[in-house]
């Protein structure tokens, strides 16, 4: 049960196997009529977010949720909205949106409340206007569920690039380069080679800020998609870099809060399980991982002992996906 002055709503990101998501147009008679949104609605007293989601999607679209997982929780302050006649149509209010990703359902979605519906690509939405609270969600949906961290130091040059091509062939679409042993002279050649391979697959490449010889403009200079900040660099960061993808490593609530305050595009939370790279670190476990990201607004990748088979478990605990340093290169 949720009880507070804030209006709580459950929102469904209904996603087909081809990546398209369902949007619905708010019908006439409702506030913000004509705006497009992800379907869902208010969480009633005595309802959990999941129960509200199931009810709303049945009422609005005539579908029964079969498989879903909790995703982001974002708060949005709606301003006062006035009708064309000048009277107050909707007072200012704060809405807390509990997003779920739905991957399996029964029935064919239909607008049972006379609302138009449309399947859309998250990276190329063609309907408008979008309800303000939903607009930032599309960028998060473009992030893949698997995030690889380079392991050149362990594999060697030839084997790393062989495994990289195999991973890209297998669907890998985001890679973080974290090779602190490379010199400033060697790094550009390595990055350029990775980016050339990744570009052919439309995969994103990010540079780890822990490579101490990099500066704030290195990602752009090396044509990488963006920067992944170490936890130490995150805590020193004052402003999110503009125009590039920006993520960070987090290990506790303080770091998670800083990343959210900066409005980063994603975070990695670790270590979830025991890991060879940080054998001395105490694993969070799935319970603490889930507790740390409850009500969290950014996409979270689980890191630490992850294998591809852990993706489903990670999602059930609120993760956007998993990050892998070792298993992805096998």
Features of this protein?
alpha/beta; 17 strands; TIM Barrel; 10 helices; elongated; Nucleoside Triphosphate Pyrophosphohydrolase; 330 residues; four-stranded mixed β-sheet; 25% helix; 27% strand; 2 domains; eight-stranded parallel beta barrel
Strand content: 25-35%
The CATH level-2 architecture of the largest domain is identified as Alpha-Beta Barrel
Question: What is the total tally of β strands?
Answer: 17
Report the total helices. Answer: 10
Largest sheet entry: 8 strands, parallel, barrel
Mean pLDDT across all amino acids: 91
CATH-defined fold name of the largest domain = TIM Barrel
Widest sheet, order of strands: 10-11-12-13-14-15-16-17
Class of the largest domain, according to the CATH hierarchy?
A: Alpha Beta
Q: Which term fits the overall shape?
A: elongated
Distance between the termini: 45 Å
Measured as a percent range, the helix fraction is 10-25%
**Global Rg:** 21 Å
Q: Work out the count of structural domains.
A: 2
Task: Extract low-pLDDT stretches.
Answer: none
Which structural class best describes the helix and strand composition? alpha/beta
Written as H for each helix and E for each strand, in order along the chain, the element string is EEEEHEEEEEHEHHEHEHEHEHEHEHE
Full CATH superfamily name of the largest domain: Aldolase class I
